[in-house]
Amino acid sequence: MDTEDLLATCWTTAGDTAPDLDDKRSPLNLRERVEAAGAAGFKGFGLLYSDLVEAEREYGLAGVRTLFEDNGLVHIELELLTDWWADGPRRSASDAVRQDLLRAAEALGARHLKIGPDVDDQPWDLDVWAGEFAALAAQADGVGARLGIEFLPWSNIKTVHDGLRLVETAGHPAGGLIIDVWHTERAHTPPAELAKVPGSRIVGVELDDADSDAVGTLFEDTVRRRRLCGEGSFDLPGIIAALRTAGWHGPWGVEILSEAHRVLPVREAAEAAYRTAAALLR
After folding, report:
1. Which end of the chain is more exposed for a tag (fewer CB within 10 A), N or C?
2. What SS3 class is residue 197?
3. Which domain range does residue 48 map to?
4. Does any domain span residue 111?
5. Number of folded domains in the chain?
6. Enclosing H/E stretch for 206
């Protein structure tokens, strides 16, 4: 299997929806999205939990897996679990999502599960979080998947260094980081720092681009104004070289989130995302 495969993360093929909407479900049928990703050349596919629920209702998990296999999509990413550190009603709701994601990961042969930090940036206890992360990583491992946390510069886990501190404290080999280059760039992390991340702690990488200056809040900028790879200000060749030095060779996620991208026909959107990212990996 080609280690330089590309994975279309959930938003890249989701069409006219976004993380800042109350209803984040894609308006597109999963078959349309999967066929568009496969036709573009992607070998991996990401699915948001709310879309997973719809897909299971329409196809059953066995049918979803067949759909992926028929279109050459072998690297499957499921997201996004939040509140895994919480208690009370928030934790109860999170645990219900957790069980669904773990069940689906096993049925679909998912490569990894993606989880998020606290976007409200509340005070947190490293040891408590590490314990929760280790327990969740063990559950992911139990269904044949890895667990990756995506750090966000506006959250309690702002940088690759913060994320690494969490996963190293947790210590479970199935746990690691999702490194989205948008977040490393907006956190002003130089590529040389990425080269130092232990390869065993990189669960996923997401490629994208952006203008040099953020417009609005970081959250607004990241969901509305990302650019296709090579069409913004990021030193993507340097970042890719650094991540390869760290030991990463794919699958490379491509996460394009923008007002311009999501109104394109899905086949056009997937093709543009694939073509511009693949050009950087040659």
Report:
1. C
2. coil
3. 6-281
4. yes
5. 1
6. strand 202-207
